[in-house]
Write a structure and sequence with these properties.
It is built from 11 helices and no strands. By secondary structure, it is mainly α. 41% of the residues are buried.
Amino acid sequence: AAPAAPQPPPAPANGAALPAGVADSQFLVEADAEITRAAQQILDKQFPGIFRDAMKEFADTANSAKEATAKVLDSAFNSTLTVVYDAAAMIPGKCMHIREAIFAKVNTSAATTHEALRSFESGVDGAVNAFGDAWQPVLFSLQALHAAVPSALRTAGLDELAASADASLGSGDGLLGRASSVTDKLRNVSATVKGIAEEPLEVAQEKLKAAEVEVQSFLDKADSFAEHFIERIGNFTDSASEKLDVPGGLFSASQQTTASAAEEVLDGVRELAEGISEAEALTGVMPQPSQSPGGGAAAGRASLGALAAALLVAAGLVRC
């Protein structure tokens, strides 16, 4: 029998309501212990004795039993990965709204360079905070994934693989740690442009160039997170297939959900990065170009902000 549909976790301990627009299936609770408990509760409800039932039903042939276990394991993975996808799927739309907000903020107040830079700093701060709010459900869902996957693997008798999953999905260099570092990189953008409106033009140019570097670091960190997300779930499913001696295609649902969630994340962060670059261009201040000793190719390389400025002027979206 197919496992029951995922059930929403209990409300946060403090009784706070879920934020508007957030799906009930997401693990919006405040403490790590609460997240772990909620994830385990969902597993207990979804899969009570399901592996034992599968093994018993197909006990007549060893191969059928293994394939049944693999199918149930894929269902267990995919149910929790769907929670991650649901959280990630909101990121592009939220980042589009953030992009529009920072654009409007700078474009409507750019009477002078000083005012434009002040609005840019304020807009970046708002964008960082808004993205942090949008990213929080992704972090919570990954904490649930960290609790669910090792538990499902242990239930299937794959204790060694479960221990590996516990480390690979957790903090530090684990998937959860990598997800947390995405927002850390974005906060660096805000720190870089702090006080930019009060600086001399040359210093403001240097700050804008430094901000571009931090935006690229943000994109690189998000790319790294998405790459490791796909790679690590793929490693688990490939290893489970090998240990159960079943075709790898039995885990295709989990792999597809993982890839889709990663794509949503990348779409969102690229939208946000483009929004910051557009807003930078609206200030009318060109970032200080990188200088190599004695000049050279680096000095003549156009910045991301300069390219965005040219595109915006050509489109008639900003005043010349």
